[in-house]
Design goal:
The chain is an all-alpha fold. The protein is built from twelve helices and no strands.
Length: 343
């Protein structure tokens, strides 16, 4: 009884702490947004957005295509038999679903597409799991890269250092846990048996502990073999993801009229890498990234909030709104094709 009461108190404390963190985040983000809104000439922003040249739009479309290819490349590397074009279709469709529907809808769409392309289920689940985990490793490593570049080129900045430390530690822990899991066959067997027992009690008709043990051990062994074969190529692809993500932002800033001379280019690059983990928030951190990014850059340069905001709007349209639209159209075309084939 004492243990149960203690556990209940800890649960209530954890919930209160989560609520407090959420309130603090909302207050901080609202304060940053208010600062941003007051310092922006929205007529100038609208002018910048509506006066993009045709060649600039064409370059942005090409950059979007390159970005989607690079983002999908780890999936194509880690899933045997999956062509790069199919990986791009799978990635953009899942991104669209994840934007408008709660998880795990995007995962179900990914698996359904892979099955329709005759990808073996073990290969599909292994590749999806590894690519997702490794992408989060790279995403959380972004602030460390941005901080080191900023420190080497300009000065030590404590908020960057703390962000790099926290996100870098999370990235290292995630990578370490993944590498351990890929070597821990005995742990996989224990977890599989435990999961099987729990599921058997909840649903007696499900497979028993021995079956789940075999499934988890097989998955662990297959994941380890896949990562050993493709470690170097996957690491290069994840590095390319960070480079392309930052490159697309810089391109959008340039087309919106943000001057890139002097040390501005490196400042824009470092700041983006530091805030990059915020893209993992719902709607890719819409509003939060813009407010945080503009507040920092304006405070450490002579750049104007108006031009920066215009560049960020162009960036968001290029990396979120247009891909979501394309993803929904792609998903609709794929579903029609499946209906035609089944009919």
């Amino acid at each position: 009884m004492v243990q149960i009461r203690f556990a209940g108190r800890r649960g209530r404390l954890a919930r209160r702490l989560v609520r407090l963190v959420r309130v603090v985040l909302v207050v901080v983000c609202a304060w940053l947004l208010l600062r941003l809104l007051r310092g922006v000439d929205w007529s100038e922003v609208w002018y910048s957005l509506t006066h993009l040249a045709a060649w600039q739009v064409a370059v942005l479309l090409a950059a979007m295509l390159v970005r989607r290819f690079v983002l999908a490349s780890p999936l194509a590397i880690l899933i045997p038999g999956l062509r790069p074009r199919q990986a791009m279709v799978n990635d953009v469709a899942a991104t669209a679903v994840a934007t408008i529907a709660p998880s795990p809808g995007d995962v179900l769409v990914r698996l359904a597409m892979l099955r329709s392309w005759q990808i073996e289920s073990t290969h599909a689940t292994t590749g999806l799991t590894l690519s997702t985990l490794l992408y989060y490793v790279a995403r959380l490593a972004g602030p460390a890269v941005g901080f080191l570049l900023f420190w080497a080129s300009r000065t030590f900045y404590a908020p960057f250092a703390w962000t790099a430390l926290l996100c870098g530690a999370a990235s290292a822990v995630l990578l370490g846990g993944l590498l351990y899991a890929l070597r821990a066959e005995r742990t996989a067997a224990i977890i599989g048996r435990l999961l099987g027992r729990i599921l058997s009690k909840v649903r007696p008709s499900t497979a028993g502990p021995e079956v789940w043990q075999e499934r988890l051990v097989t998955f662990q062994a297959h994941s380890a073999a896949t990562l050993r074969r493709h470690w170097a190529l996957t690491s290069a692809a994840l590095g390319a993801v960070l480079a392309v993500e930052a490159g697309v932002l810089i391109l959008c800033m340039a087309f919106a009229g943000v001057p890139l001379g002097g040390s501005n280019l490196l400042l824009l690059l470092c700041a983006f890498l530091v805030v990059y983990p915020l893209t993992g928030l719902p709607l890719m951190g819409a509003g939060v990234i813009e407010a945080t990014y503009v507040t920092f850059v304006v405070g450490h340069s002579t750049l104007e909030a108006t031009a920066l905001t215009a560049g960020l709007i162009v960036w968001r349209v290029a990396v979120q709104f247009v891909p979501v639209l394309i993803g929904l159209l792609t998903l609709g075309a794929w579903r029609r094709l499946q209906v035609t084939r089944s009919g």
